[in-house]
Automatic annotation (TrEMBL):
UniProt keyword annotation of Flavoprotein present: yes
Pfam families with a match to the protein in the record: GMC_oxred_C, GMC_oxred_N
Organism the protein comes from: Funneliformis geosporum
Annotated ranges, domain Glucose-methanol-choline oxidoreductase N-terminal: 52-275, 315-392
Protein name, entry field: 12935_t:CDS:1
PANTHER family attached to this UniProt entry: CHOLINE DEHYDROGENASE, MITOCHONDRIAL, GLUCOSE-METHANOL-CHOLINE GMC OXIDOREDUCTASE
Keyword terms of this UniProt record: FAD, Flavoprotein
Family (UniProt): Belongs to the GMC oxidoreductase family.
Length: 642
């Protein structure tokens, strides 16, 4: 290598190796100064003895939206966000790739590891018999972004009646009617549809933080044939599931940007972290090492701590009867820490539908029996955890016997998100839905056409088989979007690291079982139709073959066979909500219309747990909407405090 003289002023521009080294050097210096900046910022927070205007527990869908909206809309506040899981940039990058969806649901580093409890229930079709419901995994995101970092990215908002039912609970609940919620949905959304028509524009937001796009790439050949079959059966094409009607078959809108997942952390938290100010504004640095003297200024910023597990609420013990929240106790970096709120501040629990309920119960708010059984002092008796709502999901699998030149990667590239949805009303007698039910404006089923094989037996076979044994397959999954059955959760210990027990009670009510039977019959019918059955030689598998024999007589499935199948194959659509219900206290409510916990002060819950009646849709967008609405309520209350 020729030696460079110091007089070679432009050396870096013509010496590639040196140029690279200098670039690297500059990059490292940037990273270093960034880390110093972070450390200084942290020290300033520590100096303030961990006092914040708002403490948000949980950086999931709701926590991320709230942090951003509060830091930008209320002046001179600081916010602590505690997240039990890792940062989303610390975990495996496949979290961003839509095609890896199934493998991230249960990644131990980002999942809480819940299982449902085994349950014995009465058979619906044969009420004299008892059925055993096995434990099944129950994914919940434990990572910055929460479930929005691991979910299937389907963006759906539900129908007017979903929200009007929340508002019908009393005059003060009007702030949750469809018009208010719709305004919030539009404010959150940043829809990227190319050349949207006027009708589409009416229903969407284009300036929010959350990127939403139509499922990417053109619809694949086989997906086009699904649409043809559905149309032939009387299911219309729907160009916008978030438009005037949800009914029909169509492409999903997804929370994605540039082909990658776009979580609520990407949408909101990243932006929240950009705001770092000093209050009152200071003259340029006066201290010798560039710090700010304690008490002189406050840092207006959001301080996010990952791997920070909240243990319980700290109450003002001097006013024991008033249940005044003054801070939180949390576990981080191997030690227990306390963080407190400033005089006008609030503790806001955004731990999601399972954990928010657990946090409240650990802090003495919940059903008396369950708390006392776990030696927890009851501060306020409320039915926390009693209204556990969720959408059950069941499926059938189709084998593509003639992939028609479609190679593995092409079929599987469908699963950059769930591409096609079919929405219709199920039949309460378990029959294939009638033409009217397929066209009904209030669908209660959402079926997905999905290239991922949901059935573990078939999936294992395909993965572990020899190349000759491998075949192409897809799942038609049905989600019962309007179930009547209600589950519950309960604490099994006062240890904050022990997971509560979940009792889902799926299909406790007969109509739920009959509607699911009706939906699976429809999906089976779709598979039998040309061109799917002819061009692609699609065959159902797993009902009466080496993968599963569910037909007790011949080829046909009786309703009893369907029930056994459904009980065995049902899992969650992961739309858990309702456990800290927003309703009048006399109606089983745990929080009021402003999401304040009954019988407490300075304490709110903002996440899926407050949803009183499960919406007829996926829950990510509704939770973002709730958090956006809640930020306005918190802002109003903050300004009104003296
Ligand atoms: C596998 C899966 C697929 C899904 N697919 C879709 C979909 O396609 N479309 C859709 O709309 N919805 C989908 N959902 C549902 C949707 O993502 C959730 O309803 C929504 O994200 C819930 O938001 P949340 O704020 O209530 O809770 P979460 O997003 O779960 O956030 C709660 C956060 O709090 C943290 N936390 C909990 N306890 C503590 C504690 N003690 N201390 C500190 N932090 C704590 C958690 O780790 C988590 O990060 C899916 C969910 C899952 C799990």
């Amino acid at each position: 290598m020729a030696e460079l003289k110091s007089s070679d002023k432009n050396a870096e521009s013509f010496h590639p190796k040196l140029e690279n080294e200098l670039k690297l050097d500059a990059e490292i210096r940037n990273l270093w100064s960034e880390s110093i900046h972070c450390r200084n910022q942290r020290q300033m927070f520590d100096k303030a003895n961990e006092i914040y205007d708002f403490i948000i527990v949980g950086a999931g869908t709701a926590g991320c939206v709230l942090a951003r909206e509060l830091i930008y809309n209320i002046s001179n506040v600081n916010i602590l966000v505690l997240e039990a899981g890792p940062s989303d940039v610390q975990v495996n990058d496949k979290i961003r790739l839509p095609c890896t969806l199934p493998s991230i649901y249960r990644a131990s580093e980002t999942d809480w590891g819940y299982y449902t409890e085994e349950q014995r229930m009465q058979s619906i079709i044969e009420p004299t018999k008892e059925v055993l419901i096995k434990r099944t995994p129950y994914p919940r995101g434990k990572v910055i972004g929460g479930c929005s970092t691991i979910n299937s990215m389907v963006y759906m908002r539900g129908q007017k009646s979903d929200y009007d039912s929340w508002a019908a609970q009393g005059p003060e609940y009007k702030i949750w009617d469809y018009d208010h919620c719709f305004e919030a949905f539009k404010s959150v959304e940043n829809n990227a549809r190319e050349n949207p028509d006027e009708e589409f524009k009416k229903y969407h937001g284009f300036n929010g933080q959350l990127h939403v796009q139509d499922s990417p790439n053109d619809t694949y050949e086989m997906a086009k044939d699904f649409i043809k079959v559905a149309n032939n059966l009387g299911i219309p094409y729907n160009n916008d599931f978030n438009g005037a009607t949800q009914t029909g078959i169509g492409k999903h809108q997804l929370t994605m940007k540039d082909g990658k997942r776009f979580s609520l952390a990407d949408a909101y938290l990243t932006d929240a972290l950009k705001k770092v100010e000093k209050y009152p504004p200071l003259k340029p640095l006066t201290l010798p090492y560039g710090g700010i003297a304690n008490g002189v200024a406050k840092i207006v910023a959001v301080n996010v701590k990952s791997f920070a597990h909240m243990l319980s609420i700290i109450w003002d013990e001097e006013k024991e009867d008033e249940n005044i929240a003054i801070g939180v106790k949390y576990f981080c970096n191997g030690g227990i820490h306390n963080a407190f709120i400033a005089p006008k501040g609030e503790v806001i629990i955004c731990g999601g539908a399972i954990n928010s309920a657990q946090i409240l119960m650990l802090s003495g708010i919940g059903p008396k029996n369950n708390l006392e059984a776990n030696n927890i002092k009851v501060r306020k008796e409320l039915p926390i955890g009693r209204n556990l709502l969720d959408h059950p999901l069941c499926y059938i699998i189709g084998k593509v016997s003639n992939p028609n030149g479609t190679n593995d990667s092409r079929i599987h590239s469908w699963c950059c998100g769930i591409k096609l949805g079919i929405n219709y009303k199920g039949n309460v007698e378990g029959k294939i839905p009638s033409k009217d039910e397929l066209l009904d404006d209030h669908p209660d089923f959402q079926s997905y056409v999905n290239a991922i094989v949901f059935d573990p037996i078939i999936d294992d076979y395909i993965r572990s088989g020899t190349p000759e044994q491998k075949f192409e397959a897809f799942t038609l999954a049905s989600v019962l979007n309007f179930p009547s059955s209600v589950g519950h959760l309960e604490l099994c210990s006062s240890n904050p690291f022990m997971l509560p027990k979940l009792f889902l009670n799926y299909y406790e009510k007969p109509e739920d079982m009959y509607r699911m039977i009706s939906s699976l019959k429809l999906l089976r019918e779709i598979i039998k139709q040309p061109p799917l059955s002819t061009v692609w030689a699609v065959k159902e598998i797993g009902l009466n073959d080496e993968f599963g024999k569910w037909c007790s007589v011949g080829e046909e499935m009786s309703d009893e066979d369907w029930e056994r199948y459904i009980r065995e194959k049902t899992s969650t659509a992961s739309h858990t909500c309702g456990t800290v219900k927003m309703a009048p206290e006399s109606q089983g409510g745990c929080v009021n219309h402003r999401l304040q916990v009954y019988g407490t002060k300075n304490l709110r819950v903002v996440d899926a747990s407050i949803i009183p009646f499960i919406p007829n849709t996926n829950t990510n967008a509704p939770v973002a909407m709730i958090a956006w609405r809640a930020s306005k309520l918190i802002e109003e209350d903050y300004r009104n405090k003296i």
